[in-house]
Amino acid sequence: MEISALLVAGLVLALLAVFTVLRAVRIVPQARARNVERLGRYNRTLQPGLNFVIPYIDRVYPAIDLREQVVSFQPQPVITEDNLVVEIDTVLYFQVTDPRAAAYEIASYLQAVEQLTVTTLRNVVGSMDLEKTLTSRDTINSQLRGVLDEATGKWGIRVNRVEIKAIDPPRTIKDAMEKQMRAERDKRAAILSAEGQRQSQILTAEGDKQAAVLRAEGNRTAKILKAEGQARAIDHVFQAVHRNDPDPKLLAYQYLQTLPQLAQGQGNTFFVIPSEVTSALSGISKAFAEALPKSPATRDISAPDGLAEKAADDAARAAEAAAEAVADAAEADRIRPFPSAPTSSPS
Hints:
Helix 3 (109-125) crosses helix 5 (137-152) and helix 8 (276-289) packs antiparallel against helix 9. With 347 residues, the chain is α+β, with helices and mostly antiparallel strands. The termini are far apart. It has nine helices and ten strands. Among the domains are: 8-64, no CATH class; 68-169, Band 7 domain (Tetrahydropterin Synthase, Chain A), CATH 3.30.479.30; 247-294 and 305-332, no CATH class.
């Protein structure tokens, strides 16, 4: 009996010793911290790694995460300056920098941060209207971060970022905003369409203007070149005529040959036949009736017999045929030839 009792006592002591050793050794993971109280008073903070404490005297609290934490709060109703209720969903990024302050300065730092975020958000958004609230997220984030960082500094917490995840206005406001956006899009589309049409018309008008200018310049250049060509041709003819020194009989014959060309146009229904035609015909007949003047080289050679009479007869018949053609054309168009202006004899 005594041996069994001693054996049991030894086993109990061995187990107690092992349990005491295990309570004396504490291993803290990386980026964690554990507060130690000795006899109910804060003693120290255990750092990552192997730590030793006094069993049954030191009390080790649960580990505190020193990494940056992300907390997403439930959407909170907030009243804007224009008395509209919107629900705002926020996301908070914070980090515990002092485990002692986080454990002893505030009972629950997560709940404290959430409530402080809600109250600060209502204060910031309450001074803005709905339109400014929807378009000023960066301003709201910076103001929230400044207020929260200042308030949570004594709790051993550093607020790194505060983000507005969603802003949900009432359903009626959403419908009105959608209608307004649709009207704005239709307005911009109509303006862009009108601008496009105006630009197209302007470009078309500019193109027509340039084409008309170029066409007019081309016509002008063509007319100038044509007039210059005609002027040069007339000048060459004039010089050739004066260089050869024609007599009036040849000019009368050329004038008679020009008259049929006046009747070749389709729209020429009116003819002016001057009285000089008779004199031209008589000059032609006289020219061919008379013998040609002899040049010094041929002065001694006599003309063949009957050559002058035959030439005169041919010229007379040609003149009579031309006169009859002109008279027939004038009678067909029912136009009487204009008589030459009478010459008054001096008194």
